[in-house]
Every structure is written in C-alpha cells, then in structure tokens.
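Appendix B. One record, verbatim.
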Amino acid sequence: MTLLTGETEVFSSQPLTSSRCVVAFMAKRQCAGEPAIYQRQDYLKLMALFEQLEQEGWLLSFRAMFNPEQQSQAMALDSGFAHPWDLSGAFEAPTLSAAMAGTLRIEQAGWARLFTTEWLIGPREFATVNGSGPDIDRQWGFMAFWEWNDAWCEATPAQRQEYDVECDVAFKGDLALNVNIAGRHRLDWAHGWHHLGIWEIAAPEVADRAITGHENAADFMFTTSRHVIGRLRPLAELLLPVIC
C-alpha cells in the first residue's frame, strides 16, 4: 500500500507484511421508550461471537492494539452523553476480508436488532505510539476521522511536507500529555473520511488540551474532521438489553 502521506518523527509505517484492518463504528440505539426487539438471546449470541472473533485474531479494544498479547475484554466508548451515537469504538481484524465478513457476522448475531450503525473499515497505515510518561489508567477514548480538503489537494509537495512537520510538533505535544496513539488507519479506499486516529486518554480535558495544540499548529488548515469522545466500558455492559 502506498502511503497517502509520508512518515514523520512520530509516525512510522507498518511493515508491508501487516494486513490488519480497523473496524470502526458509530451506533445509535433503535428503541424509543419501549423494549427493543433486541433480547437476551441476541446478547448471548454477540458475547459468544466476540469470544470467537478474539480466537480468530481480532483485537476488540483500544488497549489490545498496543499490547495484542495482553488482549483485554471487548470494549467500546459510551459516547451518547456528547454525540448522537450511543456507542462508538473500533476493533482491529487480522485481514480486510476478515473485517468485512466479521462486520456482517456481528450485525447478524443481534447487533442490527439493537443499533443503526455506521461502519468504517480500512487498513492500518502507521504503527502505535505510546505516550511519554508512566503507564497510567486511561479510562477514556478519543477518535478522530478526517479528510484532506481542497487546500491540501492544491498544495505543493513542499507545502505538504512543511505541514507534516508542523503537525508532528502537535503530536509530540499529545505524547507529552501521556496520550497513547494507536497509529493511523486509512479509510479512503471505501469511505469519505481518509484516515482514523485513535487515542487512549486519562480524561476528556486531556483531549481538549491536545486539540488546542493542534489548532495552534494549524492542523485543521488542510483537513475537515469529526471527533468522537467517550468513556471506555466493557461491551458486556454496554450491550445488555435495556429499556431506552
């Protein structure tokens, strides 16, 4: 895969042998004041399927992207307090075909009876980067989808390189805030968004401080972005049948 943008001091490309693909999602519960058609048997099917996907090599949490050998329980963002999506997050499948087939399996196991979902799939482009600090408890997650705008398309190679250097300053600021960055995934092969960045953070104010640094570095001069933030919670809790 040809890189859409070049490597930087912060981000290095994945080995060419890597075929892992992100399966990102933003989901809204379908029910409105009544029990959903989603029932306990659907919940149990989904829990069994996530166990099977883990055995097949899927990473089912942000944490697992950094330490695959220490796979934690399946997690997602409880994001309804700030966004139209009740549930958001990302998994990582071992291959593109596994990602596409697995998404269908998740929907058919009962997910589609609970949520209307926007799914986004794409290969990993850059490797994960750990924050500059101690190993702390990061109970929040942040997702940034972005696309290159017309100004970026019209920029010269030298202007794009200068922009990457400026953005690297902002990303170094993120790492100084002890943000873990799950590299970068590429979405432009099938979606309007070009890339996805995933962060593990200690609290929402960390994301606010980090984004201020990106604004100061004129990161958004060449991009249009969508940001999603939420508390990381086990899917075993988030998918329980409830009256909503």
